[in-house]
Amino acid sequence: MGKVHVILWLPALLGLFVTSARAADLLTDKFPANFTFGVSTSAFPTEGAWDADGKGPSIWDTFTSDSSHVTGGGDAKQSADTYNHVDDDVTLLKDLGVSSYKFSISWPRIFPNGTKESVNQKGVNFYNTLIDKLLANQITPFVSLYYWDLPQDLQDKGGWSKDESVAWFGDYADFCFKTFGNRVKRWVTIDDPFSVAYKGHETGEQAPGVKNVSVTYKVGHNLLLAHAEAYRIYKDNYRTVQKGEVGISLSSEWYVPKTTGVSDVMAARRAMTFRLGWFLEPLVKGDYPLLMQQRVVAARGTANGLPQFSAGDKLKVKDSYDFIGLSHFTSRLVSEDAGVCSGATVGFFCDQGLKMETDLSYPKLEYRPEVNPTSERRLMGFGLLELLKHVTSDYNKPVIYVTENGLSSCGTLQDQNRVEYLREYSNNVLAAIKAGGDVRGFFVWSLLDGFDWSLGYTSKSGLYYVDMGRGERPRFPRSSATFYKKMIANNGLTDELVTYRAYPADRDVFLYDTFPSDFMFGVATSAYQIEGAWNLDGKGPSIWDTFAHNNRLASGQTGDVACDSYHLYMEDVRMLQHLGVNFYRFSIAWSRVMADGTPATTNQAGIDYYNKLIDALLAAGITPVVTLYHWDLPQALENDGGWKNDSVVDQFEAYARLCFEQFGDRVKYWITFNEAFVVSWLGYGIGIFAPGIYDPGTSPYMVAHNIIRSHSRAYHLYSNNFQAKYKGKVGITLDIEWKEPLTDSSEDAAAADRAMQFKLGWFANAIFAGSGDYPQVMRQLVDEKSKRQGLAKSRLPSFTQAEKNLNKGAYDFLALNHYTTNPVNNQPRPNSQPNYEQDQNIDTRYDPCWPDTDASWLKVNPWGIRKLLRWARDHYHNPEIIISESGRPDGEDLTDDGRIYYYKYYINELLKAIKLDGVRVKGYTAWSLMDNLEWTSGYYAKFGLYHVDFNSPNRTRTPRTSATFYQQLIKDRGFPKPASSRRVRRRSRGFHLN
């Protein structure tokens, strides 16, 4: 039969199957007036303080002490540190507007060895404090007694596989009811007993890590009896006075037959029976499902089968609930597979005789879907509706709380995928209520990021992002928190929430189109990084020669030889020809043409070198784009104070004059400075780059001031003396990450804009914005802080009016180096010390979803470049822009798919900025033509389209696959629309199981 998911009438065998509602049919009706909206957490993933104040070890503490059990390593010893952030978390809950908070009590925190003889009052006090603060804020505590964290001492005695576990749990439950029950009115005894039994005791993928198929059903049996014991204790001893309710929370996927064939439909029913019916049927009917009993006996015989309930146990277990909690996250395709286990193999899934898989036809819930085409995270909200209808119709219409529902992901704060998930799944809860289900609450998993069990910190499910990299564990709301808050306030979806988005719908859409005919593609290098020949033919030392010879680069490396382009420049030109680039951006080494940085030491051999390179480029049809200053100040000038000495402005003008005179007849694009920020801050602020000066409060501003003055002088020198003759253009290269607000708050939006002004605007505002001066926000903050720090004058210098006039409009184009994006949040620092970074009142991070590279500072985020370009368009009168550097390191291999991905999606975002946003971008420059000396990282970071063998005296260059990709992109002039495209039609949505 065809593979469809609408199951028709199979009367004799299967009952009625109908199609569920489509996600597009979102309901904007209200939930019932008394409906509970909440969020969930549990102790082990969030509390931390794993051994604080008398807490005993749990099986999860022990399990995760072996890093091989945790994806990505790490442990939960601190995690989100909710033990020390009660006030913060209650504030978050209050802000969300939830009416209830579901959390779990850590058994070993109040009974360190698991028994009532070992009460830990400090642990009790913690939960008393939490409960009291919740109630003070009109938030109902919804408390789980057991969420997987059995005291290790009890596990050492056999844990849940022992019959004694029922009594252990009864004593623990009785203590909790007695201690907290005067304020807690809704209890869950055990969360997800399936995972405890199967994953904890058969597959061993979760704590306690037991792999013993003969105990799976025994553990499940004891969990059911323990639940019933706790329920009866509460009913008999506490309910009359406390008037609370006790239930259990069961986890279940929804199972969809892969085909309409009878065998697959029966397999789906069997899957539901084994997953949900295993625990729910005894509670409702007093015994395990008959189908399950028959299958297990057939597969295993009677010896290792399902334990049998005694007559008394049946009575005890039956009806031992006031409500049923359901945790649901996804749906699965199921098909018959009698041979799933061969020979004598036994096990939970072998007993069922079926195969499960994910239906990949549903929309992916990935941050960047193209990087994970086979992702199993899919938007299948219909499954929750069908599960709720199934429980309602087959299990006597119980009271139901959806105790967990949510999406685990890589963790971006603009979590549109989680918004879509919550919108569709919560709406299917409303549909279930309208279909007659007694569903009284919906809890999002989870409030916070935490330690996601065996997935560690690689999986994040919080409405609030927790920065695990910082000891104070700060919390920040994701877009999904904003969405859920609005939904709670409206008691359901509104028209606004139906279309609510964390970011524009077109943000990640790939644009098939080509670049304008005058758009240029190029590659870049710089002198110190590739030339070598550091002291040949009259070249003087630069600050980077000195810095490297003082052992300031990785592994003591230097640029003495580097790629030896001083001798191999013709090989470089051949590489450029092979790529098909329109231009080549390179820099002139100031001390190669002026040994001490002044005209007195003009070096003809150095001039000859650049003449030969320029002529070879032009002969090959490649436009030279020349940078005058790429960080390598002549050491002689640094000895006189370098960029802190005002005299350097005159020295730079003289150097620029020499270059314009010697090369201007053939060079039509000049860049005065490369990344003035790096020179100012890394070189003279924190001293990690040459010349290595540490003075974070004052020197960066002095250096930047002189660089801006030098640029303006050089620009006007060219404009007044060379432009009419040579018809060239002069600009400046500024480096800038896009600064994205960390959260949706107006404070973070202002902080991100402030960060843009303090980095890009620091240099660009005076030149491009029209004022000739620094951004007003810089002037205000640095002036205020300087005064507060007791200084007689501001650490930010002032331009004279004449200098402002010179600065204004001193450009023909703006060149931008862009590699990555920084999320930024507001961080007031009223009493900071003199420090450029602290002057900004911001804090910066990286988004956890952005792919890493070999450079710790460079995370891959394509859409940042488009936002940057729009910001520059709006703030600087839409100037002509050249992206003068962009790229990423990607290892030694010749196959560099990561770099190809980077170029493909960054360049496509640039194309969107041109075509859709009207930004006047005229060129893109890949960094870098070849592997080179990456400054203090030495030769370890590989940015090159061409691999360079630094162990070879010939410095052999070999093209990587990214070179072939870039070559083809240039040839295609972008991204022509594919000749044909395949349209994927979504399937119908599941079935209802009667």
Automatic annotation (TrEMBL):
Annotated glycan sites: 212
InterPro entries, A to Z: GH (IPR017853), GH_1_N_CS (IPR033132), Glyco_hydro_1 (IPR001360), Glyco_hydro_1_AS (IPR018120)
Gene Ontology MF terms in the entry: beta-glucosidase activity
GO annotation (BP), single: carbohydrate metabolic process
Keyword check for Iron-sulfur: no
Record-linked Pfam families: Glyco_hydro_1 (PF00232)
Subunit structure: Homodimer.
The protein's name: beta-glucosidase
Species, as recorded: Aplysia kurodai
The organism's taxonomic lineage, starting at the top: Eukaryota, Metazoa, Spiralia, Lophotrochozoa, Mollusca
